[in-house]
Automatic annotation (TrEMBL):
UniProt key word Cytoplasm: yes
One matching Pfam family: Elong-fact-P_C
Molecular function GO terms recorded: translation elongation factor activity
Coiled-coil segments: none
Domain named Translation elongation factor P/YeiP central: residues: 67-122
Annotated gene: efp
CDD domains: S1_EF-P_repeat_1 (cd04470), S1_EF-P_repeat_2 (cd05794)
Organism: Lutimonas vermicola
Cellular localisation: Cytoplasm
Function: Involved in peptide bond synthesis. Stimulates efficient translation and peptide-bond synthesis on native or reconstituted 70S ribosomes in vitro. Probably functions indirectly by altering the affinity of the ribosome for aminoacyl-tRNA, thus increasing their reactivity as acceptors for peptidyl transferase.
Keyword field contains Nucleotidyltransferase: no
Identification of the protein by name: Elongation factor P
């Protein structure tokens, strides 16, 4: 059993007869009244996000998990195929298990969280940044900027990202997978 002091990002718990992963948390100690923890939980079975507040000292049932490196192979409808980089076993996961499937490129190495009790894959953790090529964007027009203006761009996975005006087709860019936003242009 874990308590509210053990809550951290990535912790997997059983809550309301479902398995959830903590994606955000905030310990709050108000001037009056008892302390509490505000959390944002993602269901590992449905993908739904839930906001919940736990009072200080609340006991939580922790799910024992381990992480393994897998290589993303290919999508097939709403199913995504991965291969273990150690023993070459393949597994398939539904779209709900992935945080940002639109940023997943074939061959990308990801971390899969697996419940140790029954070897069931729960979720996919993307690397913090991915490097992808811009396949389509309108040319930026000089002089139409007041401050850092952006334009839409389509990247090689088909996702749309807002990029600065100086980015052109064929440029490689670094994308933050948590927010799905442009970080910087990558020099080759």
């Amino acid at each position: 059993m874990a308590s509210t002091s053990d809550i951290k990002k990535g912790l997997c718990i059983v809550f309301n007869n479902d398995t959830y992963k903590v994606i955000e948390f905030l310990h709050v100690k108000p001037g009056k009244g008892p302390a509490f923890v505000r959390t944002k939980l993602r269901s590992l079975t449905t993908g739904k996000i839930l906001d919940n507040t736990f009072s200080a000292g609340h006991k939580l049932e922790e799910v024992r998990v381990e992480t393994r490196k897998y290589q993303y192979l290919y999508p097939e409808g709403d199913t995504y195929h991965f291969m273990n980089t150690d023993d070459y076993n393949q597994i398939t996961l539904q779209r709900e298990a992935l945080d940002t499937p639109e940023l997943l490129k074939e061959g990308e190495i990801v971390t899969i969280i697996i419940r140790t009790s029954d070897e069931f894959p729960l979720a996919v953790e993307m690397p913090s940044h991915v490097y992808l090529e811009v396949t389509h964007t309108e040319p930026g027009v000089k002089g139409n900027t007041a401050t850092n203006a952006t334009k839409p761009a389509t990247i090689e996975t088909g996702a749309k990202v807002n990029v600065p005006l100086f980015i052109n087709e064929g440029d490689k860019i670094k994308i933050d997978t948590e927010k799905g936003t442009y970080v910087e242009r990558v020099k080759e």
